[in-house]
Amino acid sequence: MHYALVSDLLTKEAFDERVEQKSASLGGLVDEVTAAMMVVDELGRSHIKIGEIPTAKTSIVSFFGKILEIKPPREFTREGEPPGLVASIVLGDPSGTVTLSLWDERADAAGELEVGSVLEVIAKPRPGKKEATCLALRESSVTIVETKKPPKSEIMAAPLTVRILAVFDMKEIVRRDGTSSFLQEFVIGDASGTARLVSWAPELFADVDAGSSVSISGVQRKEDEGIVEYVVSDSAEIRILADEIPVLSKDASEVSEGPNPVVTGIVTSVSEVRSFTTRRGTESRVRNVSVQSSSKKSGVNVAIWGDATDALFLPGDSVQVINAAAKLNRYGELELSVGRGSAIRMINHPGQEISLTGIIIPRPEGLSLDDGKEVWILLTNENPAPGTTVDVGGICRNGRIEVASLASHPLDAGSLVHRLASLL
Prior knowledge:
Number of helices: 4
Largest sheet: 9 strands, mixed
Shape: elongated
CATH class of the largest domain: Mainly Beta
Oligomer: single chain
Radius of gyration: 29 Å
Structural class: mainly beta
Distance between the termini: 74 Å
Number of domains: 4
């Protein structure tokens, strides 16, 4: 069994020889299994904790786990092949839980397992998931007294009544058989806090915008190590409510370590976007935003990851940081992290109507208008060329203009040269 962990490093014959040498070197004081585990450890493929499985750097892992739940085998069909069997068991240790899938012959043997037994497992993990596919297992004499609680899942009897706080882009999921489906993620909230909601029927939310209060029936509630998530299928029903659902929120000065529902504050500084390579070798991005409390006495740093770095934030913007966890950064300061399942958005206050004439200039923040006194970022779908003189009308808020009208002037080379000279 242990050879599977190092099969890419040496042949079976070489492995068996090492096991025999290890046993002989210890005077026969250890059995073959213990000697094999020692050889595997010497080759850098030692057992890991269950909590390390989602971030494991190897394609095969080995671990000990206590059986917390057994889901009996179920039959499924394969095109052009005999029916197959799949079963799953939930294993735990003090660091976490994992759902282990057993296929065909191994699934058939699941009935011989008992809740409470401890297994030694070799498995192929799913990156980023608390899931793995069993390659080999056997009962072990290792003792595991305490474990994390196994995940729970249930269909809610009563409708879920919440406010939609953030709406993410729809994603296409391609299955192994080539078929595809679509899912969409949301952040929802009420007076008790916030949570992530996943819908496998995005069309149900076609008329639902961020800020809407809704009642959703037929929702599946999942809980894993205190983290709650809701799942909506095509059998659910959604009703938009007239009254606004209140949501638990706190000031930037009140951020605490761990999950935070909605944190409000004012942006004081914004860093440049930095690119980096993740542990999995993929490219990603991060930028930092400092958010001050309403009292202006304290604040919190916000790390924004991935595609969320594309959003434009300026000093003076009022923002909400939604469903983000906070932890100590390398400087020992609390830092909110905005990534998957969380969001940061600007709170729009009433603006002022404005009408200006100026020159279009490109800036890192976006297309801008220089009227000779100030520079404004233009929020528009139009794309006038840099250097063009334009008349702009719209609503201004904190250095931005939401463009309602934009008219270009004929190009005047002399005027352009004069304006550029005044900027030097």
